[in-house]
Amino acid sequence: VSVSASSGQPGATAVVRVRGLGTVNDNNPLYVVDGQFMDNINNVNPADIDRIEILKDASALAIYGSRGSNGVIIVSTKAGKSGELTINFDMTLGVKSSYKALKMMHSDEYYDFIMPSEEADGWKKDAASGDAYKFTQQYKRGYNTDWWDAATQTAFTQNYNLSIRKGTDNSRTAFSVGYLGDEGPIITTEFNRLSLRLNQEYDIKDIVTVGATINI
Question: 83: which strand partners?
């Protein structure tokens, strides 16, 4: 199983490949979250995940047919357990910035760098200014915008998760709420996710269990 980031965009779907490239038009695996089919798990809070299983080869195709041809990723979320009430809260804060930012030329440095190339290409000079005609139209001295600095930012990331789990001999309940606010190092890139999940199970008889999973 190969997992890699598709881009630095906040909230971008990770690229997951099971056994490499399998089909021509779509190589994404099938996700099954608590029995529900999904194309990705971007809307699932990682803090809610209890375990992940990978099905491949004949084991995936036998149950899920052609939809499992690229592998199947089974995700089970946390459920309540018999015993005392359990409350968990975790918080993560962080910052991100562009790594090894490029040092940009100012206008005079760039002018001195590019002019020999323009003259070598045969551009005639303006008698009054001494500038090549091409640069009198496309380029002026004195404008020193650092576009790398203008397009990037020091990004702030915050993640909060609260979960409540409780169970008895015949029932189990788990409730969780999470918030993720993730800014990217490029301006205007941002991802926000508010998730709520409720898992409930009831044992009617020794061999019969009913339950509900609600994810918003």
Answer: 167
| pTM: predicted TM-score of the whole model, two decimal places | 0.72
Q: Which of 55-59, 131-135, 150-154 has the lowest mean pLDDT?
A: 131-135
State mean pLDDT over 198-205.
Answer: 91
- Measure the CA–CA gap between 85 and 116, rounded to whole angstroms: 76
Is pLDDT of 140 > 70? no
The encoded tokens of residue 16 equal 């997951």
The CA distance from 137 to 159, in Å, is: 50
Chain centroid to CA 24: 24
What secondary structure does DSSP assign to 33-76, as a single string?
A: ETTEEES--TTS-GGGEEEEEEE-HHHHHHHHGGGGTT-EEEEE
User: Smallest Cα–Cα separation from 93: which of 187, 182, 189, 196?
Assistant: 182
DSSP structure class, residue 192: E
Instruction: Round to whole Å and give the CA distance between 193 and 56.
Output: 31
Q: Of the ranges 27-41, 80-94, 121-135, 169-183, which one carries the lowest mean pLDDT score?
A: 121-135
The helix/strand count (H/E) of the chain reads as 4, 11
Q: Which amino acid is at 91?
A: M
Q: Tell which residue, 56, 6, 16, has the closest CA to residue 38.
A: 16
Say yes or no to pLDDT of 212 above 60.
yes
What distance in Å separates the CA atoms of residue 126 and residue 135, rounded to the nearest whole number? 10
Q: What is the mean pLDDT of residues 53-71?
A: 83
Backbone φ and ψ for 96, nearest 5 degrees, come out as: -135, 145
